[in-house]
Amino acid sequence: MPAAALVRKALVRKALVRKAAKLQAVVRVPAYWRGLLHGVAAAVEHEGAALDHAYRTVVDVGANRGQFLLVAAHRFPDAALIAFEPLPGPRQVLQRALPRRRPVRLFEEALSDRAGTATFHVSRADDSSSLLPISAAQVATFPGTDEVAQVLVRTARLDEVLAPEDLVAPVLLKIDAQGGELAVLEGATSLLPRIDTLLVECSFAELYEGQPTADAVVRFLYGHGFGLHSVGQVSRTPSSRPIQADLVFERLAPPA
Q1: How many structural domains does the chain have?
Q2: What angle do CA 224, 226, 231 make, to 5 degrees?
Q3: 10 in a domain, yes or no?
Q4: N or C end of the chain, less CB within 10 A?
């Protein structure tokens, strides 16, 4: 068997093992069972993230089917939930999967640094869809994420959709925009002073065409008063090189 096929087979096997372990963790928590009934596995990999406040507002950018929101609703029972998901199919599933007692303020715009319309590149694994074209490196690293369609979506800036009074402190902003994280942040500049914690999926290599990598996100947030608090959920290439991670940022205390 060619080396490339062996690598792909190993990646697929590793992904299946990871999914099986995740399912075991999900079924242990009754709060996540409703999600499973609708085919949504709560993002239990985020349960150990260093999210250190009793958040009153959680904003989920790139919510997909509500995988992270299920965890947020369980972990932060007093938080108002706000979500952004441009694909209608996942958006409809999200609305069914979340507990009925936890309403979600749900927006269909794809967040970016400007308002308008743009082509959205739909992945075979729709949680890997992006405003940026999917690169060969993404498909090689995460098999099954190749592009299957393109749709036109509305784009918006976060600070033009939400007002400061929508964000009751403490506030958690989670961003998983598949390469568009920096653009989302650039479209949120006037709201950033209201944010306490950010959970941002960042890549250390260009997985989407034109994607800013983790160093650009770190520099931007440092310039807006945030410091890196913790690193979690590191994904690696077959050669064990880190390729992607969830970075948690906290607002830095002003100098004395």
Answers
A1: 1
A2: 140
A3: yes
A4: C
Q: Nearest CA to 233 among 68, 58, 8?
A: 68
Count CB neighbours of 189 within 10 A: 14
The answer to whether residue 111 sits within a structural domain is no
Residue 213 phi, psi (nearest 5): -90, 180
Query: Does residue 15 form part of some domain?
Result: yes
First CA to last CA across the chain, in angstroms? Answer: 63
Question: Which residues lie across from 248 on neighbouring strands?
Answer: 199, 230
pLDDT tens digit string along 3-58? 555 555 555 565 555 666 677 878 888 889 999 999 999 999 888 889 999 999 99
Cis? peptide before 86, omega within 30° of 0: no
Q: Which two tokens stand for residue 28?
A: 């242990």
Residue 80 structural domain = 3-106+116-251
Q: Can you tell me the distance from the alpha carbon of 159 to that of 183, in angstroms, rounded to the nearest whole number?
A: 12
In a domain, 152, yes or no: yes
CATH of the domain at 225: 3.40.50.150
